[in-house]
Amino acid sequence: MSMQQPMTAPAAAGPGATGGGHHGWVVAAIVIGVLLLFFALAAAIVGLAVAASRPGAFAGRSGTVALIDVSGVIGEESSAGTPITSGSAGARALVSLLHHARQDSSIGAVVLRINSPGGGVVASAEIYDAVRSLNRVKPVVVYMGEEAASGGYYISSGARYIVANANTTTGSIGVILHLYYLQGLYSKIGVQEDVIKSGPHKDIGSRPLTDDERRILTRLIDDAFNQFIDVVATGRDLPPDQVRKLADGSVYSGVRAEQLGLVDETGYLADAERKAADFAGIQGTPRIEVLEQTPTLFGSVQQRLGFNPTQVQVTVPQLGPNQPGYLLQYLALPPGS
User: Fold this and answer.
1) Fold of the CATH domain 54-331
2) pTM (2 d.p.)
């Protein structure tokens, strides 16, 4: 009699038998959800960036007015002042700040606080162009401090509105070119000069001018002067002939400038800030944010030491027997300069 082995029933399927497939679907769903969330966030960020880049996209919806200082002689690069010299307002840094104000969606308007006698023709034009471009997107209001003359007034013309202190010195619409002749000094110290040149006017300005050379440099100045006239006439909505009558280099007080139509009103910095807020549609008291250039390490050390090697390059044309340095300037000169 054979003995049959008992048949073993198959084991019942436990939770783990089919859990592997279920678990895989859960993981896949989580991964897909995370990816969808990531792409949604990315799309939102891109959308905000595109909106911020559109002119006027955030104008009137921000409670912040940016304050930018334009102080000292206007040149290409900024420099810190010393106890005996003033600093300079660098076009490169100021244009960068104005660009930042345009791109920053939290800024609704900008106030330019100007305390400058002007400076280089090209540097002034670069800042003016940046001011005008910003003003197309966000309102720019100028507040004139102690002085906003010549190039300081030039860049003001790009703003939507100008507030001047009653005692501000402004105007000085015009162009100036300094030429220095050092032959007399060199002869006294035994320095002799020989000039080999490709044309009769190649060393123009390094020696006393001929009548023909004076006409050449006068045309150079006239081109820059006519540009100044056009900028003021356009910015202030004045007839060019009327501006030309005011453009004899005269300086005006803030009160007189208002009477002549060169500024909109006399007042204080707070008035300029309120006007900027009104233009931007800001309700209540605006938040004032001062925008400043971030100094480099070298620039910070210079400022700490009171050392300013670029100041001479900004305010004084290049000197030398055959290095005239044609530095056209929209610059108001104090007595004795």
Assistant:
1) 2-enoyl-CoA Hydratase; Chain A, domain 1 (3.90.226)
2) 0.70
